[in-house]
Amino acid sequence: MHNYYVDLHIHIGRTASGRSVKITGAKTLTLTNILHDAVHVKGLNMVGIIDCHVPEVLDELERGMEEKGWKEHDGGGVAIDSITLLLGSEIEIYDEHCQGPIHVLVFLPTIAAMRTFSAWLKKRVKNISLSSQRMYGTGRELQAFVKQLGGLFVPAHAFTPFKSLYGKGVKKSLTEVFDPDAIDAIELGLSADTEMADQIAELHRYPYISNSDAHSLRKLAREYQVIRMNAPTFAELKKALRNQEERAIIANYGLNPKLGKYHQTTCERCFKPMSPREKRCPSCGHHRQIKGVFDRLKELKTGGTPPERPPYIYQVPLEFIPGLGAKTYEKLLARFGTEMYVLHQATEEELKQSVGEKLAKLIMLARRGELSIQAGGGGKYGKIASE
């Protein structure tokens, strides 16, 4: 058994030919660049590419197998040098039972299975070559087909105000939209941690995963998990999500929820914090608000005793550290190899030698979860105090 660093929610911005996939994704977010940075910058062992339903992306994977020696694992997933690529897709559900759109993640074991899924999905979306397309069908219909293909089904960033299960997707329960027995995990999603999510009793039966939802290379592995598996394959991941045969999620690493873009409730116009009970913003008088994840989960709280779970360890990505710019970031990578090593293993003395006492102290405080944080909300990330 080994422990693997895993990030299961990474977008493709452009195909090899330069065609847009995730419109809001960076142009540099190509499959080649993702694989390079995941290994050599971030230190990941497994990545979920969630735009693999796009035919041109599948073509690129097959070319890699023909020309570069990439191979499919016997247990599912594509072995590419020292990393495993899991074939995923992000889809938007908005049927008659939804209050608002809901994003979900689908993972399939093989390229052939994803080809079959892509052909099925093409009949139900407007543009199969783009990411996160709205599917014209029900959530249960999607779940049933994914399970026919031996896949995994995960509600994505389940608590953010927009396009999520508990944001505006359902009134109270996931059973309004989905078959609860056909859900394999819940993605926490940048504004919630384990303790916050466990306020909802119907979630106690599911494992939690924490992923980056990367729209740029720098955002890779801003959230991830460490998973104990015999090998980095689809089949092993499936066992780990079910806690079978000693496979398991060992720890979730993610942002302190206060650093998330939607932690606190804010005014829709001026983005100043406000109480969800206030009908008008005390700062500008506007009558609409963006409800934060913290307040939304208080509304949905149902009690119950949660199961024993792996620790959720607050991680502050290096880009959040005040005063740590691009040149300093490159200096750290040149000295220590990967961001994982800087965040979790480099000693304070080693950091001082590389970036000076002040930045070294901030990185160590971040590692211990002792930084002062100004909470984010309304689409703006939280901030770290410089002292």
TrEMBL record:
* Alphabetical list of InterPro entries matching this protein: Pol/histidinol_Pase-like, RuvA_2-like
Q: Which SUPFAM superfamilies match?
A: PHP domain-like, RuvA domain 2-like
Q: Which residues form a coiled coil?
A: none
An example of a Pfam family matching this protein is PHP_C
Q: What is the name of this protein? A: TIGR00375 family protein
Per the UniProt record, the source organism is Parageobacillus galactosidasius
